[in-house]
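Much of what follows relies on a compact textual record of a protein's fold. A complete example follows; check for yourself that the lines match position by position.
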Amino acid sequence: MSPQRAAATTTATAGRPASPANIVKRDGVYRLYMFVDGRWLETGITSRKFLEITHVADREFKIVYINAPLDAPPPPKQDGRDGTSLGPRAQPS
């Protein structure tokens, strides 16, 4: 990778907002929300295809939730590094 491309990639990653995003499906359309000042605000980004909106959300936000309640703050960070849970741990047999 060229030094210019590496710098651009680092800048793009560092420029993502720390606020989480939320993808919610309403009326057959996926809508992207972001958490600002204690409220979920609609970004205006919509898609009929789930993969399209997840690519945008992953590129623009560090933490992305799927169907988090819009009338409550995002779930607290859990075991995962990026705000997602690692799920139950397997028990040794």
